[in-house]
């Protein structure tokens, strides 16, 4: 894991230039007043995070500085979207350059050591989106001793080792070697010698199975539901600014309203190719339009592929679902301690941040109060 506060200020300008920040359009009819508080949200390409880019397209928010969509007007804030690659989102958040960021639970630990953070919204959980794909291997016994390639010290390695544990195996018996997920998928797809097992996430999972004959999923993250959590995290310093709590509520409300536009495209059960086609065929025109827009923002996938992807990346579609996660005994007492122990044991973080649930005294606070406020309003 990057040492955020050693590298952040050295690299910040270079990282910032890689972000897409919409320019204010003085001709827009949704301009804000000078007194409207403005906040920034860093977003990278991922199914439940690309939702915010779709919300911008749909007019729920206007990602340009100084302009508002309907949900921003409702909450009286201005959200500026910063579309970046994932590592840049983490760096910008850790350095305090953006107010909020889309990031996973395990990747929120390191920034919290230097910037007190509040997880305000779980957006999705991986239930098949992360997978071990093999060629010429039929069982875990066959895989034992053979190298699996994937991104070390990341969600990929976590999903690989936890999946093995859930299958009653010792991860030490299964070598894991660092390789960029895109490169690993490409190597398997093109039949590169000695690449028999990879651990990657969508869209690489979907693409590899379709491209490489004989490629199949040996196991996936459906073995560990609600351990890999995609979230929106806000700096406590930003929440304490004028309008900070309204910003949190606006982000949450935007997510739920966009989920409502997706409608029946979302669900809790995985889909085969044929089932995905059937689901898409039954969508209303507006639902299909939103799903197509989401696919365009996530690897340019067509609607049928995106229907499979969102089922393998189960969305927390409503406030009730998000609150239930953050307040569950399993999540608080078992899942998060397990994730923290993994990150410390693999040197992803140097120290454990203090972690709490609706506890403002901790460095990383999973706080459901803002979801509750959106539900109440």
Which descriptors would you attach to this protein?
377 residues, alpha/beta, D-Maltodextrin-Binding Protein, domain 2, eight-stranded mixed β-sheet, 17 helices, 13 strands, globular, disordered N terminus
Compact description:
The chain is of the alpha/beta class. It has 17 helices and 13 strands.
The helix content, as a percent range, equals 40-55%
Quickly give the CATH architecture of the largest domain.
3-Layer(aba) Sandwich
Number of strands: 13
> Which structural category do the helix and sheet elements fall into?
alpha/beta
CATH superfamily of the largest domain: Periplasmic binding protein-like II
Largest sheet: 8 strands, mixed
Total domain modules? 2
Low-pLDDT segments? 1-18, 21-29
The CATH class of the largest domain is identified as Alpha Beta
Q: Span from first to last CA? A: 39 Å
Strand content: 15-25%
